[in-house]
Design goal:
By secondary structure, the protein is of the alpha+beta class. The protein contains three helices and five strands; from the N terminus they run ααβββββα. A five-stranded mixed β-sheet has the order 3-1-2-4-5.
């Protein structure tokens, strides 16, 4: 006769049944389903914070450049003066076949020699045109949308004027990423869901939600997007 073994009884009592295992798996699945959106949202918020930091650094570099050039802002690489040395790239750069290193020919590179600062962490490739160099687009208002041969001075711009967008030109039909600047109406949300991060002429940054972004972009009157001074509608 086999001797009584209390350990075998305890093991049998503590073993999980198939139903118990299925219940545990179901609970874990439910918890993951609840937590995953929150974790994704936290990661997206962290990427936008990094983007704001990068844009702040670019805006500061633009201000440093202006300080060294009698307050004149850098050229925005905006057509029809896109081939003149601007904030993003210099003469001779083929914007259709450029490479990331071409940003080193731009006006503000000596003030911000940091590769990662030019790339929004939420902007994923493949990249088109000048998006190979940066995720950011300068407001063509700084050169009167091509009417002026010399960019405006910082002091001529209104204090809350937006000079840089982390928008997306890929969804527009007007020559996406063909230079370093744009009209406001060429930009759409894209890298941060429905909001757009922007840099202001004073070096600060702001997140503009979709409704406010489109209201500014599509407005017929002057505002912080359409901000060419001494014009009736900021254009």
């Amino acid at each position: 006769m086999r001797a009584f073994n209390p350990r075998s009884v305890r093991s049998a009592r503590h073993a999980f049944t198939l139903i118990e295992l299925l219940v545990v798996i179901a609970i874990i699945s439910i918890l993951l389903a609840i937590l995953f959106p929150a974790l994704s949202g936290a990661r997206a918020a962290a990427r936008q914070t990094d983007c704001l930091s990068d844009m702040h650094n670019i805006a500061l570099a633009i201000n440093l450049y202006a300080n060294d050039h009698r307050e004149v802002l850098p050229n925005p690489n905006f057509s029809p003066v896109a081939t003149v040395k601007g904030w993003l790239f210099g003469p001779g750069v083929d914007t259709a076949n450029c490479v990331p290193e071409d940003r080193q020919t731009g006006s503000i590179w000596p003030y911000l020699e940091a590769e990662r600062a030019y790339r929004c962490p939420s902007h994923k490739g493949p990249y088109l045109g000048t998006a190979k160099m940066t995720s950011y687009i300068m407001n063509g208002a700084t050169i009167g949308y091509g009417r002026y041969t010399t960019p405006l001075r910082i002091g001529q711009m209104q204090g809350d004027a937006v000079i840089l967008w982390d928008g997306n030109e890929e969804e527009t039909t007007i020559a996406p990423y063909n230079d370093g600047g744009s009209f406001p109406y060429e930009v759409v949300p894209g890298h941060h869901g429905t909001s757009v991060t922007c840099a202001v002429v004073d070096g600060s940054t702001v997140v503009i939600v979709e409704a406010d972004f489109y209201a500014l972009r599509d407005s017929p009157t002057a505002n912080r997007f359409w901000c060419v001074p001494n014009t009736p509608n900021g254009r």
